[in-house]
Design a protein that fits this description.
It is built from seven helices and three strands. It has about 180 residues and is mainly α. Helix 4 packs across helix 6. The protein is elongated and about 105 Å long.
């Protein structure tokens, strides 16, 4: 088969190709019009992986950094952070949320239930850099932006709390020991 015969075969099947192309375009247009619009909002986070308790000023190895980044991503997608986002956005106050919670059995905290639902639309990723991309998808662009920012804020609050809580516990223990020593 030479080029001329090939072009004749294509010309003979022109209507088949044209029908397929038109059908594909119409189906793509209908799907685009039928499906609801989805908006994504992305927040970039740069976690601090320095260890304040380490007296050696050495940089962690690549393997340690990878483990640290995965830990930070796990914190972002934790129920603790998601529940805090639900509280910060005051989603439990909405009647559109209370009814589905009651229909689902209403067990546990409504903020925890909402947080689990929020996590379904959250995507957390990181490349070879030290930046974590937090992307939230929603039907409303304003809510997508609010949710992404709320996840970033809740993550920062949680990591701060995780760093400060042991110091607070140690302070409480030392205060008790000091009171005991003073009374003796």
């Amino acid at each position: 088969m030479n080029l001329h015969q090939f072009l004749l075969a294509l010309r003979g099947r022109f209507w088949v190709f044209a029908t397929l192309a038109a059908t594909t375009a119409v189906v793509a247009l209908l799907v685009t019009l039928i499906l609801p619009k989805q908006y994504e909002s992305t927040v970039s986070l740069l976690p601090d992986y320095r260890d304040e308790q380490s007296l050696s000023g050495t940089m962690p190895s690549g393997r340690d950094r990878t483990g640290f980044m995965q830990t930070q991503m796990d914190i972002i997608t934790s129920n603790r952070v998601a529940t805090q986002v639900a509280r910060d956005l005051k989603l439990a106050e909405s009647p559109q949320v209370k009814a589905p919670f009651a229909n689902a059995g209403g067990k546990g905290s409504i903020d925890e239930w909402i947080g689990e639902g929020l996590l379904l639309n959250l995507k957390v990723s990181s490349s070879q850099s030290s930046v974590i991309q937090l992307t939230y998808r929603a039907n409303d662009p304003e809510f997508a932006a609010k949710a992404a920012n709320a996840f970033a804020k809740a993550y920062m609050d949680t990591t701060l709390d995780l760093r400060v809580a042991p110091t607070k516990q140690a302070t409480g223990w030392f205060d008790e020991q000091l009171k005991t020593l003073r009374s003796d």
